Each structure stands twice: as structure tokens, then as C-alpha cells.
Amino acid sequence: MFAAGADPGANFGELLRRVGLSPFESVVIDNDLVIPHATTCVAMRCKDGVVMAGDRRATSGHLISHRSMEKVVQADEFSGVAIAGAAGPAMEMIKLFQLQLEHYEKVEGQTLSLEGKANQLSMFVRNNLPAAMQGLVVVPIFAGFDFFSQTGRLWDYDVTGGRYEEKDFVATGSGMLHAGTVMRVAWRRDLAVDDAVKLCARALWEASDADSATGGPDALRNIYPVIASITRSGWSPVADEVLAKIYKDIAKEVGAR
Questions:
Q1: 3-state secondary structure of 111
Q2: pLDDT at 20
């Protein structure tokens, strides 16, 4: 029970701090410790909403520590988060963010607005700043469908929790330059969802071709990037069978060229 002036209300992060369970605290990092890092993620607006995508590779220094990490996850029915940076804190941040949204809905009896969700994620990133200053940087992308404006919207963040809404597309991680260049050349505001999925897949292909920390499609192990669309119908992941065909076509085109 909380006193009237100390009740955290629907803010789950504040509830954790009030009871002394906040996970975002200053930590001491051994300089010789190599921590797995997630790399390239992209997101773009399209005619019916937004599309998010992320490769599956996590690296520890020059080693591949994980080949099938999922960096793009569903936050709730109409929004998603993509992460780049220190893998452990990033996954913990996403789980707490998902719980925050569910907690708010249960307490208030309604879902938080898309802008409010972006603000809540900003708070989580800002609370991670002490760890980020010691190397555990987490830089997410947040996107979703906004029923107030009837459009898809997306935001990127810096390590201090600053959030910046992007009007067209955004990329983060070590391959962001190459992926962003592909999107800059081919992106159009009237892209259909299927075309946006193909463009995100192409952006990650080119990033993996130029950046060693970004993983490309792995047909041998049947590992493909995580790509999902968010429209007025909700979160919809793209099946691996569809991605396999998309990447087969890309490989054929690149081989012919």
C-alpha cells in the first residue's frame, strides 16, 4: 500500500523504484569482459502503417555469439520495438516495457496512446544511462500504428533517452549507414506493405554484405531476419517461407548483376 502522495499509479517503472526493485542502476564492468551486442535494425513508414526489421546476429568482439537472436519484438497489439546495443540490458528493457504497457492497461482500463508508449520507452532508456556510460548502451527503435492520426509512426532514441520522431525511415546499429542508404534511395511514401517488407529485406542484405557484425540470411540453418508489419489490423510477422523467397530473388538479382 502507498500513501496518497507516493502512489506510482499506472507507471510500472516508478512502482519498481518505489519498492526498491529498479533494475537500471550503475554497474561495474570488467574491461576485459566481452558482452554480446545486437546490431542492425531498420523501420520505415508505408502506405498502411510501418514495417520493422532486424538481422539475427549478436557479436562478442570479433566472434559471433548468437546467430538467431530476435531483435524485433511485439510491444503490444499495435506497436513493436527493435533494439541495438548490449543484448542483455536490451532484452530486459523490452520485457519491462511490455509489462509497463500491460500494467497501464489493467490499472487505467484503456491502452496508452502511441505517443505515450514512445515516452515510456524514453524513460526506460534514460534510466539505463548509468550503465550506458560504462559500455552497456541500448538504442531502440519504436514504431506502431496510431489510430488518432490513422498512420504508422516511428521513433528512434539516443543513450540519454532523447526521442526523435522520424517521418520516413530509420536505421540503427553497426550497419545503419549501409541499410539507411538503401532505404534513402528506394523509399517512397506510398509503398505498399509487401514492397516495404522487400525493401527492408534488401537494406539488411546490403548491410550484411558490408558490415561483419550484421548477419545476412542463412539458408543452411534456415535463419532469416525478423520482419514484421504493423497496420490497423495489428502486428503481423513475415513468415520465414516468404523471406526465403524474397532473399532467393535478391541473390539471383545480385548474382546476375
A1: coil
A2: 66
90 within 8 A of 82, measured Cβ to Cβ = no
- Taking the C-alpha atoms of residue 94 and residue 81, their distance in angstroms, rounded to an integer, is 7
Phi/psi region, residue 63 (left: phi>0; alpha: psi -120 to 50; beta: rest), is: beta
Task: Map out the domains of the chain with their CATH numbers.
Answer: 35-256 (3.60.20.10)
pLDDT digit string, tens, across residues 159-187: 999 999 999 999 999 999 999 999 999 99
Cell matching residue 94 = 523490452
Virtual CA dihedral for 207, 86, 226, 59, nearest 10 degrees?
Answer: 60
Tell me 126's DSSP state.
Answer: H
Mean pLDDT of 79-89: 91
Q: What pLDDT, in 10s, does the model give residues 197-220?
A: 999 999 999 999 999 899 999 999
* 240-256 helix and 193-210 helix, angle to the nearest 10 degrees: 60
Catalytic residues, by residue number, are 39
